[in-house]
Predict the structure.
Amino acid sequence: MSAAFDLINVPAAPADHPEHQYLNLLRDILENGARRDDRTGTGTLGVFGRQMRFDLSKGFPV
């Protein structure tokens, strides 16, 4: 992938915090995502088949 996207160094969330999964997914998309055209002409980056899992017994992640 080209250097068109610069990742911002953000303090890491604790490993058990739900935000950690989200930030890792965003990093993966920016580093490894495939460019895709869309109907607006803007384009997107995407990765196939990624999942996030949350323990809902601790409440709904917002």
